[in-house]
Give the backbone structure.
Amino acid sequence: MIELDVALKVGTFNLEMAFRNDDGITALFGHSGSGKSLTLNLIAGLMRPDRGTITLDGRVLVDRARGIFVSPPRRRIGVVFQDSHLFPHLTVRQNLWFGRWFAPSRERAINFDAVAETLGIGKLLPRYPAKLSGGERQRVAIGRALLCCPRLLLFDEPLAALDMERKLEILPLIERLHTEFAVPIVYVSHATEEVARIANLVVVLNAGRVKAIGRPGEVLGPLGGESGWSRFDRVSVLTTKVCGANTAYDLTELKHPSGTIWLAGRAGPPGGQIRIIVRATDIVLSAGPPHDLSVRSSLSGQIGSIEKDGPLAVVEVILEGEGRLYAITTRHALDELGLDRGSRVFALIKTSALDERQAAVTPLSF
Amino acid sequence: MIELDVALKVGTFNLEMAFRNDDGITALFGHSGSGKSLTLNLIAGLMRPDRGTITLDGRVLVDRARGIFVSPPRRRIGVVFQDSHLFPHLTVRQNLWFGRWFAPSRERAINFDAVAETLGIGKLLPRYPAKLSGGERQRVAIGRALLCCPRLLLFDEPLAALDMERKLEILPLIERLHTEFAVPIVYVSHATEEVARIANLVVVLNAGRVKAIGRPGEVLGPLGGESGWSRFDRVSVLTTKVCGANTAYDLTELKHPSGTIWLAGRAGPPGGQIRIIVRATDIVLSAGPPHDLSVRSSLSGQIGSIEKDGPLAVVEVILEGEGRLYAITTRHALDELGLDRGSRVFALIKTSALDERQAAVTPLSF
Amino acid sequence: AGKAETPAASPGTEKDTPVIVFAAASTKTALDAVAAAWKTNTGKTASIAYASSGILAKQIEQGAPADIFISADLKWMDYLQKAKLIRAGTRRKLLGNKLVLIEPGDADVKLEITKGFDLAGAAGDGKIAVCTLDSCPGGIYAKEALESLGVFASVEAKLALADNIRNALNLVARGEAKFGIVYATDAKAEPKVKLVGTFPEASHSPIIYPVALVEASNNPDAPFFLSYLKSQAATKIFTGQGFDILPK
Amino acid sequence: MTDLSPAEWTAIWLSLKIATAATIASLPFGILVAYALARWHFPGKMLLNGAVHLPLVMPPVVTGFILLILLGRKGVFGAFLASIGIVLSFRWTGAAVACAVMGFPLMVRAMRLSFESIDRRLEQAAGTLGANRASTFFLISLPLAAPGILAGAILSFAKALGEFGATITFVSNIPGETQTIASAIYSYTQVPGGDASALRLTVVSIAISLVALLASEIVQQRAEKRLASFE
Amino acid sequence: MTDLSPAEWTAIWLSLKIATAATIASLPFGILVAYALARWHFPGKMLLNGAVHLPLVMPPVVTGFILLILLGRKGVFGAFLASIGIVLSFRWTGAAVACAVMGFPLMVRAMRLSFESIDRRLEQAAGTLGANRASTFFLISLPLAAPGILAGAILSFAKALGEFGATITFVSNIPGETQTIASAIYSYTQVPGGDASALRLTVVSIAISLVALLASEIVQQRAEKRLASFE
Ligand SMILES: Nc1ncnc2c1ncn2[C@@H]1O[C@H](COP(=O)(O)OP(=O)(O)OP(=O)(O)O)[C@@H](O)[C@H]1O
Ligand SMILES: Nc1ncnc2c1ncn2[C@@H]1O[C@H](COP(=O)(O)OP(=O)(O)OP(=O)(O)O)[C@@H](O)[C@H]1O
Ligand SMILES: [Mg+2]
Ligand SMILES: [Mg+2]
């Protein structure tokens, strides 16, 4: 459980932040210069808020009114900084071991080799940070934060310098931290997909203020209309149940009250819940059930609202049963298909456009 | 014109690079640790190759055999480093002016205010770098490199710490540098879409070797099969002609011999060439012409090759007339639709999935 | 290695505890030779610490483990005697010296040192090197001499003050200064200077190096070394260096 | 402090003049040598490094004596300097030279440390922006080494205030010309009862150096604030 | 060099012992004070800073004299120290104290510069990884300040080799006990004809310091290679 409500003024910049997440991963999302890193600094104890409180798992870390301020080492909060901040005089191995050394031995739950393996830094262990590439440094920094087995993890754009492939390998590791060891996480990112995949709370910052807060599906879908966000940032989050598989074609069948979604590969045992992220620009709307198409998955629903945006329109599809999807199409298509508020539609979703590795097996409170 | 053919050994890492680009933007693409930054260091003159030559616009910068090595300041090559390397004792304004001061005044073609405006750093001018956010620092670094009006620009993942929206604002600026001032550019990135948008030559690095080289369409489409690349990295590049517009719906009609593509907004005058980037996962295949769908654009062609990859398959569509598209679907869909090599298919492309800002008005040799 | 650990300050009851002599730096050449002779004669060691008389006196005041003090002037001996830090009974004049005017070896100025002699004129725009006028003994004697000869006012502006006689000598030897006023012993030892003349003994208070046993000394060899300083051998060494041996 | 004699005031004034001149005059050499030691590789680098440290290792008297031999009126270089009108011996300029030499190792070490701690990549970045070696040095390296340059200057200045061994040996002790506070203090310590006067002058020279120190700390703290991301 | 007298060998050996002891003994204090000045804010910081610089500003004789008064057998602290068995005056240990004091400002300045140039964010990162202040200091700050600590130690060592003003005043110039190379050289320079011997000893002390310098440069270059991204 992390809860904070703080205010800070640096230079001419005013930060006012408040959120509370009882369990899970909080995503801090916002433009460059919106105050994300400052927020992490406050949580880590590297800066003192001008007023306010920060509480972690019931322990008050900061309370300006009561004059409480727990020092960083006693907070045991692991941080992956925006620039890696590796210790230049220590080898990669020593950097990784640095935090571990100070962790009480019964809390050293995370396996060194497993982390080194996943991050692909096994070969770098005897090297010094100055001789690493940018992405290698960042991976070592992630490893260092993980291995100190912290009570809370702060990630400041840890994956920015990494290719998609690496990202998709590292994200599950970060998530496992949460699911296996119940380590809460605050994660800063610019990439909506990254955020939607792992977070159970999204806090959108704008110029130092909380602009939106809620579950990924609630916050990231309606996001696009605001100035400064691209339509490619809009995603919907759907919670589905594994109900079967097509072994011949290696597909998993996910059930949603409004239809079926096919996911590539095998994703968890039947009955398990799976959370799926669908980009608004990936959805094709159809007035009737699809045929002759390579699209395998379709969900039926009713158009809720239509929000026009130049040549395009954001269509909210209220799915049968529960949940909603946001789809973006041209206004032209809407008119041609005669779609309007209240119309029945099918939302077609390409299996290949769904990243099965981004589909989280979710024990979360969705 | 940039041409290089060099070899370098640092530690246990061997780099062997050779490419030549007569005109335009070269994208260096590769995993973390593949040698991209080292290559830029060689071009900038910050490292000396063990052997080989580097030539820029006919001027030999390095020739180990002949003992030629032009020092960095005499190369006039602007670099945006992976970490920003701003001068901490200078204000943002002074940092920006630093390079400009040394540029011969008749070469000071790039406008200060325009750059500051586009990069959104106008307000930061009197500040010192230590007091900037990560993304702000990176934008200042980009500005600094641009404003020194170099003869060649090297970008090492300049947009990694920026949100998509900012990226899409900065990319055109980078491109304008090339088109307006004929500054060649070498651009390092992890993001295929970024690369495909601006480059006319893509060099894919793997463990210090050139693994693929060619135009974006040729290189990035076939990429997915290789280990380590995600299917989301696959894109196709299509060259089309503006042939009309639908003013009522604010759409541009792009003609390709195999069909019509609708792009959101207005993109250049009729007759102009437009380059379009289509992600392989964004294409829906249809056995017949589409109907009842929100998809407005369809291109017809014949299936060239099918490359199976687990539950999915990469389908090469040889378009009527010229060009090819890569589409990814499930094997299941292919079998159900009875699609095989030689089958006629329609490739459906959602207008909203095409980023009109990534569509380059291209005077390039495509 | 162990030698350096010798407990010089511990009670000097053991036979081979060296006698510690605190001596004015200008006596080094002569005293080193005397100590060496004593060692050959008796097999005993005299350990001699050279520094300026003032520093040595203050160190004795602070409990330095010295057995014998040889001062370059009477003042510092008086200072210690007043503080009852030396055995007054053992005090005596050890050596005498003369004050001389010198010039660089390649110069050839003839001057007779008499009342009102034209030292200033002879110096021209050159300097006259002397020891610091009110702190260094040599300087004090020089000032007295120049004053009693009535030329001090005319040469004061031309004086270059060194922190010790040796430095003044150096300035002349290197040709930096046109003249120098130093002890006869120094002039004799430095081949690169030439004697111009000796100051009349009456022109300054007598130059005397007094010696005494330090009150706190309990080294049984100390009195022997003190008396050895008067021995024939020692006298020969001292006179060889140009010192005067003073009666009592 | 009002009971300082005119001669003492002269010594104080002279000390200030000499210390300031010594510091300012040795600054460019100190910076050059420090930078060379920090960044360049050249044959004889160790020798230069050793030579710079000499005045620290040798007793001041020896240093003064060597200066006398080299720069004295009849010295190897001194004769040449005299022929072009530069006379150092028995002049305050000579005292400044002695102080500069004695302070040089301290100055160079501090500056060198600062040059060494500069991130080379910043200098490289300046190079790619078109700054040649000289410009990079003056616009990037020098300002970034400011803490060390300031520290070096202060050390040299303080040393100059306290120096008398080499000075008195080289240029002697001429009131009004080369008699500094330090040599005046030394003289006082050599006469019985001179302690009080010595103490008085010592306090004066401490006060001067404290003022210099304070000024340098303020300058430095201001520069630091800019470079700090938060305090 | 084979014609050095046994007394001179003793002086050399003693100088080495004293310089080494002075450097090693002052190291922890130097590090502590340097770190405090570089990183902490506390009342009296300027005073401490001034006090550290005193031995530089005051003529060595005065420093030595103050030491004599404070730490001498009859001195304020000296009497106390003597009562617990620590006698400094006129012992080699006292000479080491004098050298340590004289080298202290140089040592502290160099170290302070290095501590100041450490990126604070690295210390903060160590904090977030669970290292408390002490661990952060020993594992991060201290190793990163190594260049300055080395430079400080070398300066102190070199100074100790050359120091005689304070030493001779505090512990006198007793052969075999407190006569170092520097004070032996001083003795030789006080009499005509001593130049050759003085020169010989000067060469010895220069040689010693060059060896120390060389060693320190090698150590430093090795450390630097690790930290450099490319040479
Ligand atoms: N020490 C400081 N003094 C003054 N302003 C500061 C300071 N540190 C940060 N700022 C400003 O506060 C704002 C928020 O900074 P912060 O680093 O939190 O941004 P961010 O959201 O992390 O951005 P980015 O994505 O670019 O890293 C920025 O506009 C920045 O310029
Ligand atoms: N100075 C060096 N000594 C030894 N190895 C080095 C050195 N610099 C880089 N390397 C290694 O060379 C390889 C290529 O480095 P480079 O910085 O070019 O990678 P990159 O392609 O830019 O990767 P990234 O995307 O992570 O920045 C890496 O494996 C790195 O560890
Ligand atoms: Mg940030
Ligand atoms: Mg790189």
